[in-house]
């Protein structure tokens, strides 16, 4: 017989959809959980799925700092395209052999979330630990702040973030916006 073995088991193809942890964003809190998992797992497609096409990022305090350093354009027109490029570069660096980042997100106890029928505002405190394990002191930085996420319900009853405002925990402190701005 010159035929192939019809009983031989074939290997399965790679999944074509997003990988990692991603749940249908049917509630505002699920979007934030997806954002956390995407950031932790460094999966850019899952991360971008958390945002609307008209997404805007704002960092008022960091914008003023950038203006005082003669870099006013650093936070101008921060839309989904900029977010994609910046986060992709950040993910690429912090998945290298020695560099890692760890993020902690928690509800802001001072500001309760505002939940409506088709819109929501979620307040989250965060800490991002930055490591470089090629150094004797691997912790190279910490970003801390408060993010305010404005969400809306879109098609198919899915929620997404259309506006993100970021502020440092302490005035003048290093925050998520500062971290992201290093890659713009």
In total, how many domains does the architecture comprise? 1
Radius of gyration: 20 Å
SSE pattern: HHEHHEEEEEH
Q: What structural class do the secondary elements suggest?
A: alpha+beta
Structure description:
Helix content is 26%, strand content 32%. With 184 residues, it is an alpha+beta fold. The protein has a single domain (28-181), classed as Roll (Nuclear Transport Factor 2, Chain: A). Strands 1, 2, 3, 4, 5 and 6 form a six-stranded mixed sheet that branches. Strand 4 and strand 5 (139-153) form a beta hairpin. The mean pLDDT is 91.
List the helices and strands and how they pair.
Layout: H1 28-41, H2 44-48, E1 51-58, H3 60-68, H4 80-93, E2 99-107, E3 114-115, E4 119-132, E5 139-153, E6 159-168, H5 176-181
Parallel strand pairs: 1-6
Antiparallel strand pairs: 2-4, 3-4, 4-5, 5-6
Labels describing this entry:
32% strand, Nuclear Transport Factor 2, Chain: A
Give a brief rundown of this model.
The protein has 184 residues and is of the alpha+beta class. 26% of the residues lie in helices and 32% in strands.
């Amino acid at each position: 017989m010159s035929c192939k073995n019809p009983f031989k088991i074939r290997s399965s193809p790679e999944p074509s959809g997003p990988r990692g942890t991603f749940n249908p964003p049917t509630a505002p809190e699920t979007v934030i959980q997806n954002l956390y998992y995407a950031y932790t797992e460094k999966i850019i497609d899952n991360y971008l799925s958390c945002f609307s096409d008209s997404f805007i990022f704002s960092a008022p305090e960091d914008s003023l700092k950038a203006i005082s350093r003669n870099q006013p354009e650093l936070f101008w027109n921060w839309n989904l395209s900029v977010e994609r490029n910046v986060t992709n570069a950040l993910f690429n660096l912090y998945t290298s052999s020695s560099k890692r980042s760890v993020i902690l997100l928690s509800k802001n106890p001072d500001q309760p979330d505002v939940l409506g029928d088709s819109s929501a505002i979620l307040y989250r405190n965060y800490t991002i630990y930055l490591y470089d394990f090629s150094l004797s002191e691997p912790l190279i930085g910490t970003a801390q702040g408060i993010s305010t996420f404005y969400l809306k319900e879109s098609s198919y009853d899915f929620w997404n973030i259309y506006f993100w405002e970021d502020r440092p925990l302490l005035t003048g402190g290093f925050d998520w916006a500062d971290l992201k701005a290093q890659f713009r």
